[in-house]
Design a protein that fits this description.
Layout lengths: L2 H15 L5 H12 L6 H16 L5 H19 L5 H19 L39
Helix pairs in contact: 1-4, 1-5, 2-3, 2-5
């Protein structure tokens, strides 16, 4: 993987993992990476600020906050990778661990379909689990 792709993936994965229950693990690993084995307190503060901003964002602004934070972390990771090449290997390992963390965190997904003609439920996705289909009062199409 080239370094630009790695830093983009790292930034996005970190932002996603920042709002999980595994945040302390994320915080510890990333701070130690930047501190070359010792926790970097400045990075810990930035990670905490990232988490605060993400959790404080309203649903309308969340995507913009996520994108801005991911971009900032991508830049920080790119600056970090200007140093010895083994840092890229360490970052790749951390990203893989974070992706596993994010993948293991489930979540509720709710799809609401409106508009047009609706004749019944429309399940979308992959790997369906517990599904509740509300067959409430859908408007009938007028022919």
């Amino acid at each position: 993987m080239d370094l630009d792709a790695l830093t983009a993936l790292a930034g996005n994965t970190l932002v996603t993992a920042a709002v999980t229950d595994g945040f302390e693990t994320v915080r510890h690993k990333v701070a130690r990476l930047f501190g070359r084995g010792k926790p970097e307190t400045g990075i810990e503060r930035r990670l905490d600020a990232t988490r605060r901003q993400l959790t404080a964002a309203t649903s309308g602004e969340l995507e913009n906050v996520r994108a801005a934070q991911a971009s900032r972390w991508q830049t920080r990771f790119a600056d970090l990778l200007e140093d010895p090449p083994e840092i890229a290997v360490e970052l790749s390992i951390i990203v893989a661990e974070l992706q596993s963390l994010v993948r293991d965190v489930g979540g509720a997904v709710r799809n609401t379909i409106t508009g047009g003609v609706v004749h019944g439920p429309v399940p979308m996705g992959r790997d369906f689990g517990d599904i509740t289909i509300d067959s409430g009062p859908y408007p009938r199409a007028i022919p």
